[in-house]
Amino acid sequence: MTDTTDILSIRNVYKVFGEQPDTAMQMLRNGATKDEIFEKTGQTVGVFDASFSVKKGEIFVIMGLSGSGKSTMVRLLNRLIEPTAGTIELNGKDITGLGDADLLDVRRKEMSMVFQSFALMPHMSVLENAAFGLEISGVDKKERNRRAQEALEQVGLGEHGASYPHQLSGGMQQRVGLARALTNDPTILLMDEAFSALDPLIRYEMQGELIRLQKEQERTIIFISHDLDEAIRIGDRIAIMEGGRVVQIGTPEEIMRNPADDYVETFFKGVDVSKILKAGDVACPTSGCTIRINGSVQPFDSANNDFGYLLDNSDKLQGIVPLTGLDAAQTNVDHLMQQRVDQHAAVYSDDMVKDIVKKVANAEYPVPVIERNGTFCGVISKDRLLQTLSHT
Ligand SMILES: Nc1ncnc2c1ncn2[C@@H]1O[C@H](COP(=O)(O)OP(=O)(O)OP(=O)(O)O)[C@@H](O)[C@H]1O
Ligand SMILES: [Mg+2]
Q: Which residue has the higher pLDDT, 119 or 117?
């Protein structure tokens, strides 16, 4: 994320499907539930009092069980579905009142959508398929082919413009869909389960592609997913929906540490925490095993610590020494420096836990965690690692 400006904000948005939304809205205001309203009136509450903001340049993932309102939500954002109540602001401008022409303009320039299964035209080449959105918008052929070719290159299909859809794999076809959405160079990309139909390996690859595209182009992406691993991998923040409500919004780590309710907790149960937590999140503060070496040696506790961590005046890690048999009163800085283990494995506080498991498991000492500038921030022992990984 490069910017923290809100690009899209929605406030108190509702969507009731049915003939008498007013009746349903009244019942909602009086505290009726989605199920009660459906039983009594046959109306379906798709989205219920949703308010949130999406920041410029982030990947914002919307998650939830089937029927929780994800697709309805994302279609409300570009008004493919009209909200029953509430406001939707794009760059601070309310778009709920826009007429058809202005709305079309918003969809062309600001928000493109990629769907789960993308309908490619079988008789049109890959280039023509990618250019199709522009063709509908009336862009002339030379210009639309140029932009389509550029978009195909962005998704790794630059060489395939002349092929036909049936000659492409499912993953490649989905890339054509992504390229079509990119031809508009939209500020916001809306993706509704865009990768769900893909094989796991291709899906993983496409996730990587999306992360890359987002980094390079600083595009804002709103991505719907069923899949928690996917949400965690690509999402800067995740919104969790249940029965039309947004029950929690936060970074994967925030949600995992502090789930709003049982539903959210169940979602995160069994999740691989090593993919969410960073070394700095699990590092333990040390007591008695950091040794400041500024000319003299400050007291350390060799009875309770097997290893000591040498820090200079500005808390930068200078080395690790075995403490067994060492007496603080009878040692000096030179001696300590000579006793250092030859090589030591420090990890950075922003390393993902999954990437440091091996190091921690193989090191003979609790692995020191440092900031990028070298400042010591704690250690991770094998016990600590196991404790972290056994979160259920
Ligand atoms: N056009 C519609 N008419 C009536 N009810 C609808 C309509 N579209 C959606 N709904 C209802 O709104 C609720 C939310 O549906 P939505 O499609 O948004 O869920 P979803 O979270 O996208 O589910 P899935 O994961 O299965 O795609 C459901 O109860 C659904 O039946
Ligand atoms: Mg859906």
A: 119
Q: 83 alpha carbon to ligand 1 midpoint, in Å?
A: 14
Decide if pLDDT at 2 tops 60: no
Does residue 1 surpass a pLDDT of 70?
no
Query: Ligand 2: distance of its center to the CA of 21 in Å?
Result: 21
* pLDDT at 30 exceeding the cut of 80: yes
**From ligand 2's centre to the CA of 37, what distance in Å?**
21
Nearest CA to ligand 1 atom 11: 46
Instruction: Identify the nearest ligand to the CA of 244 by its number.
Output: 1
Domain boundaries, the chain: 6-110+186-271, 279-389
**Token digits for 70?**
């994800």
pLDDT at 117: 67
Reported CATH class of domain 279-389 = alpha beta
Per the DSSP assignment, residues forming a β-bridge with 317 are: 311
Please return the burial class of 227, using the count of CB atoms within 10 Å of its CB with bins 0-12, 13-18 and 19+: middle
pLDDT at position 391: 66
Lowest mean pLDDT among 48-62, 102-116, 338-352: 102-116
Q: What is the position in ligand 1's atom list of the atom closest to the CA of 46?
A: 12
| Helices within 188-346 (DSSP H only) | 200-217, 228-234, 252-257, 262-268, 279-282, 333-338
> Which amino acid residue places its CA nearest to atom 17 of ligand 1?
71
Q: Percent of the chain at pLDDT above 70?
A: 98
Pocket of ligand 1 (CB under 6 A): 17, 44, 46, 64, 66-72, 226
User: Is 173 in contact with 164 (CB distance < 8 Å)?
Assistant: no
6-110+186-271 in CATH: which number? 3.40.50.300
Structure tokens at 18: 């049915």
